[in-house]
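Researcher: Please translate sequence to structure tokens.
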Amino acid sequence: MAYEVIWSQESLSDIGDIAAYINRDSPFHARRVVEECFALGDELVEQPKAGRVVPEFQIDTVRERQIYSYRMIYELKEEQIHILGVIHGARQLEEVKRFT
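Model: Translation complete:
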């Protein structure tokens, strides 16, 4: 089954915010994190269920993968992968309004 990746506006904004934060100390690492985020999105097409179920939700279709110290949270819907957000692993999902 061929999946299509759909990036939410919030997830793209998250990546931009992460890049801006890292860029203050290292433009190289900021670029690397952004590249890894989009590469992971491409990987999900091949193995959408490779990520673990998000522990806070315990819903089989809502999963996450790690990118360095960040969590990419996505939802499987029919033949689509909706990237919902990219947040720092230390943040609680309860703190992020779109996940409550």
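Researcher: Any highlights?
Model: The longest strand covers residues 80-88.
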